[in-house]
Amino acid sequence: MSMIEFRKVQKYYGKFHALKDIDLEIDKGETVVLIGPSGSGKSTLARSVNGLETIQSGQLIVNGRDIADKKTDINRIRTDVGMVFQHFNLYANKDVLENIMIAPRIVLKMNEDENKKNAMALLDQVGLADKAHNMPSQISGGQAQRVAIARSLAMKPRCMLFDEPTSALDPEMIDDVLGVIKYVTSQSDMTSLIVTHEMGFAQEVANRVIFMDDGQILEDDKTDVFFKNPSNERARQFLSKIISH
Question: 2-89+158-243 falls under which CATH superfamily?
Fold first, then answer.
């Protein structure tokens, strides 16, 4: 059953055609990686799934709801769809634990004891239980990104979006963050859409790889097939440059 479905989706920024006639289905429980050159439309596609980017035409169905329908409650969509950005966007004036607890308290009306227990369990999962009472300024960028992942998971989403989650990190911090994402995507009922330049990671976690360029999906294939023998010439050129470096 589909968790996310794009049907003839078009997206413009003024005259710039950012997404061109996108048709795409992502099933519940799938982990799909989006790759392609900068400016190809990857982040725009991912950000449209929870309404951070609005589409001009077509249908975008998320967990059975048409996000383009004016009657759709976008906040309900965002409750189902967690998102982790390039930059962590933690509340600087709240400690790590409170950063995780605030949304479930306000949006889900979660009981305070249950909320704290859930937040501590998530911090333990991402290896940061000992940082619960640190302020964001007292932890590293990699740790902050792991807190941001825990914060998204605290809302118990059905789907997770990762928009180049390691691109702002120092190289030695990347593996810890990728390890947490790998754990999240291994949960059998979690649907994940990941925009990344980390090709080795993509090969490890993805069921499918989608290659985009110039606002179009040029290739959509099983991971092993894509990396061994992409059928699209532009995808072959891209891979040869990425892997040789």
Answer: P-loop containing nucleotide triphosphate hydrolases (3.40.50.300)
| DSSP class of 225 | H
Beta-sheet pairing, 159-163 with 81-84: parallel
Angle between the 141-153 and 112-125 helix axes, to the nearest 10 degrees?
A: 130
Inter-residue contact 207 to 222 (CB < 8 Å): yes
pLDDT per residue rounded down to tens, the chain (245 residues): 799 999 999 999 999 999 999 999 999 999 999 999 999 999 999 999 999 999 999 999 999 999 988 899 888 888 899 999 888 889 999 999 999 999 999 999 999 999 999 999 999 999 999 999 999 999 999 999 999 999 999 999 999 999 999 988 888 889 999 999 999 888 768 999 999 988 989 999 999 999 999 999 999 999 999 999 999 999 999 998 876 54
The helix (H) or strand (E) run that includes residue 163 is: strand 159-163
Rounded Cα distance between 236 and 46, Å, is 23
